[in-house]
Amino acid sequence: MVPKQSRRVFLGLCSATATVALSRQFAFAAGDTATSPMKLSDAEWRKRLSPPAYAVLRRAATERPYSSPLNSEHRAGTFLCAGCSLPLFASSTKFDSGTGWPSFYDHLPSAVAEKRDFAFGMVRTEVRCARCDGHLGHVFDDGPKPTGLRYCMNGVALRFATKRTT
């Protein structure tokens, strides 16, 4: 026969374990929606994006240098993916690279994915949005400190949001 006190302790531990397991599962699921893959049909992307944004984000085109108004954006805020609004770059990491495209020396955590790009007979590292897999630009190793990287992004693939003041 098991004493009542031991049974209560055992049931309490089981309940606490189940609560922790469920809360972790729900926390993972809630956090996962921020960067879970976004899949749309080609027709849905065409409807959602302007023709220049569609060409860059979905077809890996490159906008003309010095054509983006984001080159001269210097306010505090965040640069988001124009396709899915995932925050990609903090304005504090933006710098003038002199290349004609918005450039950053670092990205926000888990915001981008990188892959090898062998187009045009070169080997480069392509940068894509981690959520919608949209083409953003390329990263090079000729940037400023502290990372030494230059995330050279197509401005049409980004949109800017200012920080809210409370």
Describe the SSE topology.
Layout: H1 4-32, H2 42-48, H3 51-59, E1 77-81, E2 87-90, E3 94-95, E4 103-104, E5 112-117, E6 124-129, E7 135-140, E8 150-153, E9 158-162
In words, what does this structure look like?
By secondary structure, the protein is α+β, with helices and mostly antiparallel strands. It has two domains: 1-33; 42-162, Metal Binding Protein, Guanine Nucleotide Exchange Factor, Chain A (Beta Complex). 27% of the residues lie in helices and 24% in strands. The chain contains three helices and nine strands, in the order αααβββββββββ. It has helices at 4-32, 42-48, 51-59; strands spanning 77-81, 87-90, 94-95, 103-104, 112-117, 124-129, 135-140, 150-153, 158-162. The strands form two sheets. The protein has a six-stranded antiparallel sheet with strand order 3-4-8-7-6-5. A three-stranded antiparallel sheet has the order 2-1-9, with no helix packed on it. It is globular and about 40 Å long. Mean pLDDT is 84; it is low at 9-33.
The structural class is alpha+beta
- Element order, helices and strands? HHHEEEEEEEEE
Q: CATH superfamily name of the largest domain?
A: Peptide methionine sulfoxide reductase
CATH class of the largest domain: Mainly Beta
CATH fold field value of the largest domain: Metal Binding Protein, Guanine Nucleotide Exchange Factor, Chain A
So what's the oligomer here?
single chain
The main sheet comes to: 6 strands, antiparallel
The percent range for helix content is 25-40%
Number of helices: 3
What percent strand?
Answer: 15-25%
CATH architecture annotation name of the largest domain: Beta Complex
Low-confidence stretches: 9-33
DSSP strand count? 9
How do the strands of the widest beta sheet line up side by side? 3-4-8-7-6-5
- Mean pLDDT over the residues: 84
Ends distance: 61 Å
Query: What's the number of domains?
Result: 2
